[in-house]
Amino acid sequence: TSDAVTLTVSVKRKPELTSSPQGAALMGNPVTLYCKLEQSAGWKFYWSKHTQNPENETNTATHSYTISAVKPSDGGQYWCRAGRGNPVYYTHYSDALWVNITGVSSIVSLIIIPNRTQHFSGHSLSLICKDQRNSTTWRVMQYSHDRSVSDCPSDRGSVTSSTCNISSLSTAHTGVYWCQSKSGGSSKPVNITVHDGDVILDSPVHSVTEGDSLTLRCLLNKTPSNLIAYFYKDGSLFQNQTTGQITIHAISKSDEGLYYCEYPERRESPQSWVSVRGEKSMS
Fold first, then answer.
1. What number does CATH give the domain 198-283?
2. What is the b/e burial string over 135-168, where b = at least 16 CB atoms within 10 angstroms of the residue's CB?
3. Which tens digit of pLDDT belongs to each residue from 23-67?
4. Looking at residue 269, what is its pLDDT?
5. 255 φ, ψ to 5°?
6. Which among 77, 105, 143, 253 is least buried, having the fewest CB atoms inside 10 angstroms?
7. Which architecture characterizes domain 16-102 according to CATH?
8. Do residues 257 and 274 make contact, with C-beta atoms less than 8 angstroms apart?
9. Full-model pTM
10. Fold agreement (104-196, 198-283)
11. Where do the domains of the chain lie?
12. pLDDT tens across 72-116, in order?
């Protein structure tokens, strides 16, 4: 008879990412992210922003990561994962956590044309600071994947203090954009994703008011579609439609989450966060 062999099967773990405070963070205040993992001894923790890119991860020896004074550029999607051993064994990435920054100026807003969060590589984009006082003292700022803050990379000759025009987008334009004044005032930040694939999700740039309707469209680059589009929320199938779009009537807080779509023959779009704010106050 042969010797008995013990086979151990381990399930790849997936941490839970949370934040303190939860929900919106006030500009200038600290925010701490927590990467929760059972039996966390011996692990290092890795933090990603905007995309799950190992090359741009920040690592910590503990399961927490603190931003001491949040800025508009700190808003956006975050993920975490843990690793240990040599060679390093990594857990799955956590689900995405969205950090919203508040306490920004209400007199200025950033207008995006076309008005959506996702855009095809090679297409054009305009970003405009709209000030209720018709002031032109605002500049469009960008926080990019290389963790640098700079003026929006506008085409030469088409930049003003409050407008940024990009005639041919690339994935390097993916990032957080906002309006900023010399005095330090800021608009609410906007996340822009540039995708070099065939499919993007047309979703709103700004929060949707509770009770309003929301239409999401699954867009194909160059080729018109009569295919079935599949829409997902938080990783689960939400709806499928031959029209390539879905409408959520009387949206509520429970509809808030990460959405993406796919045409099975053409792959899937990136994910975008749909934010829902409270009902409009009666006047």
1. 2.60.40.10
2. eebbbbbbbbbeeeeeebebeeeebeebbbbbee
3. 677 777 888 999 998 876 789 999 998 777 777 788 898 899 998
4. 94
5. -85, -10
6. 253
7. Sandwich (2.60)
8. yes
9. 0.70
10. yes
11. 16-102, 104-196, 198-283
12. 788 888 999 999 988 989 999 998 888 877 766 667 888 999 999
On the question of pLDDT at 283 being above 50, the answer is no
Instruction: Tell me the percentage of the chain whose pLDDT exceeds 70.
Output: 85
Q: Which CATH number fits domain 104-196: 3.30.360.10, 2.40.40.20, 3.40.309.10, 2.60.40.10?
A: 2.60.40.10
Contact 102, 91 (CB under 8 A): no
- pLDDT score for 281: 43
